[in-house]
Amino acid sequence: MSSLANQLVRAEKEEIARAIRTLLARPFLTADDEPAAFAVIRKRREPLTRWFDYFCGWRLVVEPREGYARLVKAGSRPTATRPARRRAGGPPFDRRRYTLLCLCAAELLAAPVTTIGMLAGRVARAAAVETGVPPFDPVSADERAAFVDALELLERHGAITPTDGTTDAYLGDEEAKVLYRVDTTRVIRLLAAPVPPSRLPGAAGDPAAPTVAPTVAPIAALTVEARYGGDEPTETQRALWARHSVIRRLLDEPVVYRDELTPVQAAYAASLTGRGMIRRAAEEAGFVLEERAEGLLLVDTEATATDTRFPDDGGPAKVAALLLLDLLVTAGPLPAGRLDEEAAELLRRFPQWARAYQSDGGAPRLAADALEVLAMFGLARRTGDRVAALPAGARYRVDRGPADTEDA
Known about the structure:
The chain is 46% helix and 11% strand. The protein is built from 15 helices and twelve strands.
Protein backbone atom coordinates (compact mmCIF):
# COMPACT_ATOMS: atom_id res chain seq x y z
CA MET A 1 0.00 0.00 0.00
CA SER A 2 1.34 3.40 -0.97
CA SER A 3 2.21 6.10 1.52
CA LEU A 4 -0.74 8.20 0.30
CA ALA A 5 -3.15 5.30 0.77
CA ASN A 6 -1.83 4.76 4.30
CA GLN A 7 -2.38 8.42 5.10
CA LEU A 8 -5.94 8.30 3.77
CA VAL A 9 -6.77 5.21 5.83
CA ARG A 10 -5.26 6.78 8.93
CA ALA A 11 -7.19 10.02 8.34
CA GLU A 12 -10.44 8.08 7.95
CA LYS A 13 -9.86 6.18 11.19
CA GLU A 14 -9.09 9.41 13.03
CA GLU A 15 -12.25 11.05 11.67
CA ILE A 16 -14.41 8.09 12.73
CA ALA A 17 -12.82 7.99 16.19
CA ARG A 18 -13.33 11.71 16.74
CA ALA A 19 -16.92 11.49 15.48
CA ILE A 20 -17.67 8.64 17.90
CA ARG A 21 -16.41 10.67 20.83
CA THR A 22 -18.28 13.78 19.64
CA LEU A 23 -21.57 11.89 19.49
CA LEU A 24 -21.00 10.45 22.96
CA ALA A 25 -20.75 13.97 24.34
CA ARG A 26 -23.61 15.35 22.21
CA PRO A 27 -26.05 12.58 21.27
CA PHE A 28 -28.33 15.12 19.58
CA LEU A 29 -26.00 17.10 17.33
CA THR A 30 -27.18 19.69 14.82
CA ALA A 31 -25.50 21.17 11.78
CA ASP A 32 -26.35 24.66 13.00
CA ASP A 33 -24.46 24.22 16.27
CA GLU A 34 -21.46 22.23 15.00
CA PRO A 35 -21.25 22.35 11.20
CA ALA A 36 -17.76 20.85 10.95
CA ALA A 37 -18.55 17.90 13.24
CA PHE A 38 -21.85 17.26 11.48
CA ALA A 39 -20.12 17.27 8.08
CA VAL A 40 -17.79 14.49 9.25
CA ILE A 41 -20.65 12.49 10.78
CA ARG A 42 -22.65 12.80 7.57
CA LYS A 43 -19.68 11.64 5.50
CA ARG A 44 -18.84 8.72 7.81
CA ARG A 45 -22.37 7.77 8.84
CA GLU A 46 -22.17 4.16 7.60
CA PRO A 47 -19.08 3.07 9.60
CA LEU A 48 -20.32 5.10 12.57
CA THR A 49 -23.71 3.38 12.46
CA ARG A 50 -22.02 -0.04 12.31
CA TRP A 51 -19.67 0.80 15.20
CA PHE A 52 -22.41 1.92 17.59
CA ASP A 53 -24.64 -1.02 16.69
CA TYR A 54 -21.91 -3.65 17.02
CA PHE A 55 -20.20 -2.50 20.20
CA CYS A 56 -23.09 -0.85 22.06
CA GLY A 57 -26.37 -1.89 20.48
CA TRP A 58 -27.18 1.81 20.00
CA ARG A 59 -28.92 3.22 16.93
CA LEU A 60 -27.48 6.21 15.10
CA VAL A 61 -29.84 8.30 12.97
CA VAL A 62 -28.24 10.82 10.60
CA GLU A 63 -30.55 13.13 8.66
CA PRO A 64 -28.41 15.14 6.18
CA ARG A 65 -31.32 17.16 4.78
CA GLU A 66 -32.76 17.94 8.20
CA GLY A 67 -29.32 18.80 9.54
CA TYR A 68 -29.04 16.66 12.65
CA ALA A 69 -27.64 13.39 13.99
CA ARG A 70 -29.27 11.50 16.86
CA LEU A 71 -27.48 8.79 18.80
CA VAL A 72 -30.29 6.82 20.41
CA LYS A 73 -28.65 5.58 23.60
CA ALA A 74 -30.33 2.92 25.68
CA GLY A 75 -29.01 3.15 29.22
CA SER A 76 -26.99 0.31 30.71
CA ARG A 77 -28.66 0.99 34.07
CA PRO A 78 -30.83 3.76 35.57
CA THR A 79 -28.75 6.70 36.74
CA ALA A 80 -29.36 10.27 37.82
CA THR A 81 -25.80 11.47 37.28
CA ARG A 82 -26.48 13.15 33.91
CA PRO A 83 -29.64 15.22 34.38
CA ALA A 84 -30.94 17.76 31.92
CA ARG A 85 -29.85 21.24 32.96
CA ARG A 86 -31.70 24.53 32.90
CA ARG A 87 -28.88 26.26 31.07
CA ALA A 88 -25.29 25.38 30.24
CA GLY A 89 -23.73 24.52 33.59
CA GLY A 90 -26.91 25.53 35.40
CA PRO A 91 -28.94 23.67 38.02
CA PRO A 92 -30.37 20.27 37.04
CA PHE A 93 -33.98 19.74 36.05
CA ASP A 94 -36.30 18.82 38.87
CA ARG A 95 -39.40 16.63 38.65
CA ARG A 96 -41.62 19.58 37.72
CA ARG A 97 -39.43 20.63 34.80
CA TYR A 98 -39.26 17.09 33.45
CA THR A 99 -43.07 16.88 33.68
CA LEU A 100 -43.53 20.14 31.80
CA LEU A 101 -40.94 19.07 29.21
CA CYS A 102 -42.94 15.91 28.46
CA LEU A 103 -46.22 17.81 28.31
CA CYS A 104 -44.70 20.44 25.99
CA ALA A 105 -43.25 17.77 23.69
CA ALA A 106 -46.61 16.02 23.45
CA GLU A 107 -48.53 19.21 22.72
CA LEU A 108 -46.00 20.47 20.16
CA LEU A 109 -46.88 17.58 17.86
CA ALA A 110 -50.27 19.17 17.16
CA ALA A 111 -49.10 21.93 14.79
CA PRO A 112 -45.98 23.17 12.97
CA VAL A 113 -46.44 26.70 14.35
CA THR A 114 -47.54 27.88 17.77
CA THR A 115 -47.18 30.72 20.25
CA ILE A 116 -45.97 30.53 23.81
CA GLY A 117 -49.41 31.53 25.08
CA MET A 118 -51.21 28.88 23.03
CA LEU A 119 -48.72 26.24 24.14
CA ALA A 120 -49.07 27.25 27.80
CA GLY A 121 -52.84 26.91 27.47
CA ARG A 122 -52.57 23.46 25.91
CA VAL A 123 -50.14 22.33 28.60
CA ALA A 124 -52.49 23.66 31.32
CA ARG A 125 -55.42 21.71 29.85
CA ALA A 126 -53.33 18.55 29.46
CA ALA A 127 -52.08 18.74 33.05
CA ALA A 128 -55.65 19.22 34.29
CA VAL A 129 -56.82 15.89 32.83
CA GLU A 130 -53.72 13.79 33.57
CA THR A 131 -54.07 11.81 36.76
CA GLY A 132 -51.19 12.43 39.15
CA VAL A 133 -49.91 15.53 37.31
CA PRO A 134 -50.14 18.79 39.29
CA PRO A 135 -52.04 21.58 37.51
CA PHE A 136 -50.00 24.07 35.50
CA ASP A 137 -50.65 27.67 36.49
CA PRO A 138 -48.96 30.20 34.15
CA VAL A 139 -49.91 33.03 36.52
CA SER A 140 -47.31 31.75 38.98
CA ALA A 141 -43.80 33.09 38.39
CA ASP A 142 -42.24 29.80 39.56
CA GLU A 143 -44.41 27.85 37.13
CA ARG A 144 -43.47 30.17 34.26
CA ALA A 145 -39.78 29.76 35.12
CA ALA A 146 -40.09 25.96 34.98
CA PHE A 147 -42.03 26.22 31.70
CA VAL A 148 -39.36 28.49 30.18
CA ASP A 149 -36.60 26.05 31.22
CA ALA A 150 -38.41 23.23 29.43
CA LEU A 151 -38.87 25.34 26.30
CA GLU A 152 -35.24 26.46 26.26
CA LEU A 153 -34.09 22.85 26.36
CA LEU A 154 -36.32 22.16 23.34
CA GLU A 155 -34.77 25.20 21.65
CA ARG A 156 -31.25 23.89 22.26
CA HIS A 157 -32.13 20.70 20.39
CA GLY A 158 -33.78 22.57 17.52
CA ALA A 159 -37.22 21.11 18.29
CA ILE A 160 -38.63 24.64 18.40
CA THR A 161 -37.25 27.86 16.97
CA PRO A 162 -38.52 31.31 18.04
CA THR A 163 -39.24 33.36 14.92
CA ASP A 164 -40.65 36.38 16.74
CA GLY A 165 -39.82 37.31 20.33
CA THR A 166 -37.68 35.52 22.92
CA THR A 167 -38.65 32.78 25.35
CA ASP A 168 -37.15 34.63 28.32
CA ALA A 169 -39.74 37.38 27.89
CA TYR A 170 -42.33 34.99 29.33
CA LEU A 171 -40.55 35.00 32.68
CA GLY A 172 -41.74 38.48 33.53
CA ASP A 173 -44.98 38.62 31.57
CA GLU A 174 -47.49 35.84 31.01
CA GLU A 175 -48.91 37.89 28.13
CA ALA A 176 -45.55 37.94 26.27
CA LYS A 177 -45.80 37.24 22.54
CA VAL A 178 -43.42 34.59 21.23
CA LEU A 179 -43.95 32.74 17.95
CA TYR A 180 -42.36 29.30 17.42
CA ARG A 181 -41.70 27.14 14.41
CA VAL A 182 -41.95 23.49 15.47
CA ASP A 183 -39.85 20.67 14.03
CA THR A 184 -42.06 17.73 14.93
CA THR A 185 -39.51 15.19 13.70
CA ARG A 186 -36.93 16.46 16.18
CA VAL A 187 -39.51 16.46 18.95
CA ILE A 188 -40.11 12.76 18.31
CA ARG A 189 -36.36 12.05 18.14
CA LEU A 190 -35.85 13.42 21.64
CA LEU A 191 -37.23 10.22 23.15
CA ALA A 192 -34.55 7.53 23.29
CA ALA A 193 -36.53 4.50 24.44
CA PRO A 194 -36.27 1.04 22.85
CA VAL A 195 -40.03 0.63 23.33
CA PRO A 196 -42.21 3.58 22.24
CA PRO A 197 -44.73 4.52 24.93
CA SER A 198 -47.56 4.04 22.41
CA ARG A 199 -46.70 0.34 22.16
CA LEU A 200 -46.83 -0.40 25.86
CA PRO A 201 -49.66 -2.67 27.01
CA GLY A 202 -52.51 -0.44 28.06
CA ALA A 203 -51.39 2.57 26.02
CA ALA A 204 -53.97 4.60 24.14
CA GLY A 205 -54.70 2.99 20.78
CA ASP A 206 -53.31 -0.40 21.79
CA PRO A 207 -55.85 -3.09 20.86
CA ALA A 208 -54.76 -5.12 23.88
CA ALA A 209 -55.36 -2.20 26.24
CA PRO A 210 -57.46 -2.90 29.32
CA THR A 211 -60.59 -0.89 29.95
CA VAL A 212 -58.70 1.41 32.32
CA ALA A 213 -55.18 2.09 31.11
CA PRO A 214 -52.43 2.75 33.65
CA THR A 215 -51.64 6.44 33.97
CA VAL A 216 -47.87 6.04 34.28
CA ALA A 217 -45.88 3.42 32.40
CA PRO A 218 -43.01 1.94 34.40
CA ILE A 219 -39.61 3.00 33.13
CA ALA A 220 -38.53 -0.65 32.98
CA ALA A 221 -41.20 -1.36 30.35
CA LEU A 222 -39.82 1.41 28.13
CA THR A 223 -36.26 0.10 28.28
CA VAL A 224 -36.83 -3.58 27.43
CA GLU A 225 -34.64 -4.62 24.49
CA ALA A 226 -36.05 -7.69 22.74
CA ARG A 227 -32.74 -8.55 21.08
CA TYR A 228 -31.42 -9.93 24.40
CA GLY A 229 -34.09 -12.60 24.78
CA GLY A 230 -35.84 -11.49 27.96
CA ASP A 231 -35.98 -14.01 30.81
CA GLU A 232 -34.82 -16.95 28.72
CA PRO A 233 -31.93 -15.75 26.54
CA THR A 234 -29.88 -18.04 24.35
CA GLU A 235 -26.14 -18.26 24.83
CA THR A 236 -25.67 -15.94 21.86
CA GLN A 237 -28.11 -13.38 23.27
CA ARG A 238 -26.44 -13.54 26.69
CA ALA A 239 -23.02 -12.90 25.11
CA LEU A 240 -24.46 -10.02 23.07
CA TRP A 241 -25.95 -8.45 26.19
CA ALA A 242 -22.65 -8.81 28.05
CA ARG A 243 -20.72 -7.09 25.27
CA HIS A 244 -23.16 -4.23 24.86
CA SER A 245 -23.80 -3.62 28.55
CA VAL A 246 -20.11 -3.59 29.55
CA ILE A 247 -19.05 -1.29 26.72
CA ARG A 248 -22.07 0.98 27.31
CA ARG A 249 -21.00 1.43 30.91
CA LEU A 250 -17.41 2.14 29.93
CA LEU A 251 -18.59 4.84 27.51
CA ASP A 252 -21.19 6.32 29.86
CA GLU A 253 -19.42 6.21 33.22
CA PRO A 254 -16.09 7.69 34.32
CA VAL A 255 -14.94 4.38 35.80
CA VAL A 256 -16.37 0.86 35.95
CA TYR A 257 -15.50 -1.18 39.05
CA ARG A 258 -15.51 -4.95 38.74
CA ASP A 259 -17.43 -5.40 41.99
CA GLU A 260 -20.31 -3.36 40.50
CA LEU A 261 -20.69 -5.70 37.50
CA THR A 262 -23.08 -8.63 37.40
CA PRO A 263 -21.48 -12.09 37.37
CA VAL A 264 -22.13 -12.39 33.62
CA GLN A 265 -20.59 -8.96 32.92
CA ALA A 266 -17.59 -9.63 35.18
CA ALA A 267 -16.93 -12.97 33.49
CA TYR A 268 -17.13 -11.34 30.06
CA ALA A 269 -14.79 -8.46 31.02
CA ALA A 270 -12.25 -10.98 32.37
CA SER A 271 -12.41 -13.37 29.40
CA LEU A 272 -10.00 -13.29 26.46
CA THR A 273 -12.88 -12.53 24.08
CA GLY A 274 -14.28 -9.77 26.25
CA ARG A 275 -10.93 -8.14 26.92
CA GLY A 276 -10.11 -8.22 23.21
CA MET A 277 -13.47 -6.69 22.30
CA ILE A 278 -13.12 -3.91 24.90
CA ARG A 279 -9.61 -3.09 23.71
CA ARG A 280 -10.76 -3.01 20.08
CA ALA A 281 -13.69 -0.72 20.87
CA ALA A 282 -11.42 1.63 22.82
CA GLU A 283 -8.82 1.77 20.06
CA GLU A 284 -11.33 2.38 17.26
CA ALA A 285 -12.96 5.20 19.25
CA GLY A 286 -9.64 6.85 20.09
CA PHE A 287 -9.68 6.10 23.82
CA VAL A 288 -6.83 4.94 26.04
CA LEU A 289 -8.00 1.92 28.03
CA GLU A 290 -6.77 1.59 31.60
CA GLU A 291 -7.16 -1.88 33.11
CA ARG A 292 -6.69 -2.38 36.83
CA ALA A 293 -7.48 -5.14 39.28
CA GLU A 294 -10.33 -3.01 40.65
CA GLY A 295 -11.86 -1.98 37.33
CA LEU A 296 -11.56 -0.32 33.95
CA LEU A 297 -11.84 3.18 32.54
CA LEU A 298 -11.54 4.91 29.19
CA VAL A 299 -9.43 8.05 28.90
CA ASP A 300 -10.07 10.58 26.15
CA THR A 301 -6.84 12.52 25.95
CA GLU A 302 -8.54 15.23 23.86
CA ALA A 303 -11.54 15.48 26.23
CA THR A 304 -13.91 15.34 23.26
CA ALA A 305 -16.26 12.70 24.67
CA THR A 306 -16.85 14.22 28.06
CA ASP A 307 -19.60 16.64 29.03
CA THR A 308 -17.95 17.59 32.31
CA ARG A 309 -14.45 17.42 33.74
CA PHE A 310 -12.71 16.73 37.00
CA PRO A 311 -10.68 18.32 38.34
CA ASP A 312 -11.43 21.82 37.17
CA ASP A 313 -12.45 25.14 38.68
CA GLY A 314 -15.98 25.00 37.30
CA GLY A 315 -17.45 25.86 40.69
CA PRO A 316 -16.82 25.76 44.44
CA ALA A 317 -18.20 22.22 44.71
CA LYS A 318 -15.58 20.84 42.32
CA VAL A 319 -12.75 22.69 44.04
CA ALA A 320 -13.90 21.46 47.44
CA ALA A 321 -14.31 17.94 46.01
CA LEU A 322 -10.65 17.81 45.01
CA LEU A 323 -9.51 18.98 48.46
CA LEU A 324 -11.81 16.60 50.31
CA LEU A 325 -10.79 13.71 48.06
CA ASP A 326 -7.16 14.12 49.08
CA LEU A 327 -8.25 13.88 52.71
CA LEU A 328 -10.30 10.75 52.02
CA VAL A 329 -7.43 9.07 50.16
CA THR A 330 -4.84 9.81 52.84
CA ALA A 331 -6.94 9.42 55.99
CA GLY A 332 -9.17 6.54 54.94
CA PRO A 333 -12.94 6.26 55.43
CA LEU A 334 -14.26 9.17 57.46
CA PRO A 335 -17.54 10.12 59.13
CA ALA A 336 -19.63 12.47 56.99
CA GLY A 337 -19.45 15.02 59.81
CA ARG A 338 -15.68 15.26 59.33
CA LEU A 339 -16.22 16.46 55.77
CA ASP A 340 -18.61 19.11 57.07
CA GLU A 341 -15.86 20.30 59.42
CA GLU A 342 -13.31 20.42 56.60
CA ALA A 343 -15.73 22.39 54.43
CA ALA A 344 -16.32 24.84 57.29
CA GLU A 345 -12.57 25.31 57.65
CA LEU A 346 -12.25 26.03 53.92
CA LEU A 347 -14.96 28.67 54.13
CA ARG A 348 -13.30 30.22 57.19
CA ARG A 349 -9.88 30.38 55.53
CA PHE A 350 -11.23 31.85 52.28
CA PRO A 351 -14.08 34.20 53.21
CA GLN A 352 -14.24 35.74 49.72
CA TRP A 353 -14.58 32.31 48.05
CA ALA A 354 -17.76 30.27 47.49
CA ARG A 355 -20.06 33.14 48.45
CA ALA A 356 -23.16 31.01 47.88
CA TYR A 357 -22.04 28.86 50.82
CA GLN A 358 -20.92 31.69 53.12
CA SER A 359 -24.04 31.53 55.28
CA ASP A 360 -25.56 29.46 58.05
CA GLY A 361 -25.61 25.85 56.97
CA GLY A 362 -23.25 26.58 54.09
CA ALA A 363 -20.53 24.13 55.15
CA PRO A 364 -22.76 21.00 55.16
CA ARG A 365 -24.21 22.06 51.79
CA LEU A 366 -20.72 22.52 50.35
CA ALA A 367 -19.61 19.13 51.67
CA ALA A 368 -22.75 17.46 50.29
CA ASP A 369 -22.31 19.06 46.85
CA ALA A 370 -18.63 18.09 46.80
CA LEU A 371 -19.48 14.52 47.72
CA GLU A 372 -22.07 14.46 44.93
CA VAL A 373 -19.30 15.44 42.49
CA LEU A 374 -17.01 12.70 43.79
CA ALA A 375 -19.77 10.08 43.55
CA MET A 376 -20.63 11.16 40.00
CA PHE A 377 -17.02 10.63 38.91
CA GLY A 378 -16.70 7.30 40.69
CA LEU A 379 -14.13 8.63 43.14
CA ALA A 380 -15.90 8.24 46.50
CA ARG A 381 -18.87 6.45 47.99
CA ARG A 382 -21.01 7.10 51.02
CA THR A 383 -22.27 4.12 53.02
CA GLY A 384 -24.45 5.09 55.92
CA ASP A 385 -22.60 7.79 57.83
CA ARG A 386 -19.16 7.00 56.44
CA VAL A 387 -17.49 8.19 53.27
CA ALA A 388 -14.65 6.31 51.59
CA ALA A 389 -12.46 7.07 48.60
CA LEU A 390 -12.73 4.56 45.75
CA PRO A 391 -9.63 3.18 43.98
CA ALA A 392 -9.73 5.71 41.11
CA GLY A 393 -9.43 8.50 43.68
CA ALA A 394 -5.79 7.60 44.30
CA ARG A 395 -4.79 9.22 41.00
CA TYR A 396 -5.66 12.62 42.49
CA ARG A 397 -3.62 12.20 45.65
CA VAL A 398 -1.38 15.18 46.25
CA ASP A 399 2.33 14.34 46.12
CA ARG A 400 3.76 16.59 48.78
CA GLY A 401 7.37 15.54 48.24
CA PRO A 402 9.99 15.39 51.00
CA ALA A 403 9.25 17.28 54.18
CA ASP A 404 10.67 20.79 54.37
CA THR A 405 13.70 21.07 56.61
CA GLU A 406 15.63 24.00 58.00
CA ASP A 407 19.36 24.21 58.64
CA ALA A 408 20.26 23.93 62.31
